Amino acid sequence: MIYLKLFLTFFKIGLFTFGGGYAMLPLIQAEVLKNEWMTNTEIMNFVAISESTPGPFAINMATFVGTETGGIFGAFCSTLGVVMPSFIVILLVATFYEKFKKNKAVAGCMTGLRPAAIGLIASAALSLAITAFFADGVSVAVFKSVEFYISAVVCIVMTVLALKKVHPIKIITVSAVVGIICGYALNLPV
Predict the structure, then answer these.
(1) Each residue of 102-117: b (16+ CB within 10 Å) or e?
(2) Whether the predicted pLDDT of 179 surpasses 90
(3) Whole-angstrom Cα distance, residue 47 to residue 27?
(4) Quick one: CA torsion of 85, 89, 91, 94, rounded to 10 degrees?
(5) Concatenated DSSP letters for the chain?
(6) Which of the pair, 106 or 119, is modelled with greater confidence?
(7) Would the pTM of this model clear 0.70, i.e. be above it?
(8) What is the sign of the dihedral through the CA atoms of 53, 190, 168 and 25?
(9) Residues 164-176 as b or e (16 or more Cβ within 10 Å = b)
(10) Cα–Cα distances in Å, from 30 out to 33, 78, 121?
(11) Are 86 and 11 in contact (CB under 8 A)?
(12) 132 to 48, 96, 119, 151, 181: CA distances (angstroms)
């Protein structure tokens, strides 16, 4: 039954991932590919859509995967699955916050999880880059493509804008405009 499988898969992802939506991406990617719900290219497209739509990244990804594999009820099951662990943990933390606020083991655990979350985010970025530029294998031809250099320039410009504390809405708007212009100018496939 696809609905139970979606719920349990995203419950597991939500339960074992710390660090937000990007830290979940490697787990989402592994599970979706393992279950053959989507291809790597489709996942990359859904990442772009999830980034462009309002709301938390992980919930958007769960909803998109659920919709793609099980329709509206699939979206409901996968979204419920990904948020349920956090909801339960927040309820427990809120209940026992004062008791564990200064616990050294809890503080140590959180300190240890931060580098792991950064590693998972870096892994997701690398995986997306490989899918985007080396889908057919590593080749020198990638470095001859206009798309590669446009992506590199856009990435550098967006990094500079982010470091200069430009508002994210402005960065998203600029990215969308540049993407539309480049897509039409180069007749890139969608």
Answers:
(1) eeeeeeeeeeeeeeeb
(2) no
(3) 13
(4) -160
(5) -HHHHHHHHHHHHHHS--SSHHHHHHHHHHHHHHTTSS-HHHHHHHHHHHHHSSS-HHHHHHHHHHHHHHHHHHHHHHHHHHHHHHHHHHHHHHHHHHHHTT-HHHHHHHHHHHHHHHHHHHHHHHHHHHHHH-TT---GGGGG-HHHHHHHHHHHHHHHHHHTT--HHHHHHHHHHHHHHHHHHHT---
(6) 119
(7) no
(8) positive
(9) eeeeeeeeeeebe
(10) 5, 15, 14
(11) no
(12) 12, 45, 20, 10, 19
Q: Two tokens at 4?
A: 């139970």
The token pair at 85 is: 């662990």
In this structure, the chain runs to a length of 190
User: pLDDT for 63-110, tens place per residue?
Assistant: 999 999 999 999 999 999 999 998 898 888 778 766 776 778 877 877
Tokens representing 137 are 């294998």
Instruction: Determine the Cα–Cα distance for residues 94 and 84; give it in Å rounded to an integer.
Output: 15
Whose tokens are 């279950």? That residue is 35
Q: Which residue has the tokens 């470095």?
A: 143
Question: Any residues with CB less than 8 A from the CB of 52 and at least 6 apart, and which?
Answer: 172, 176
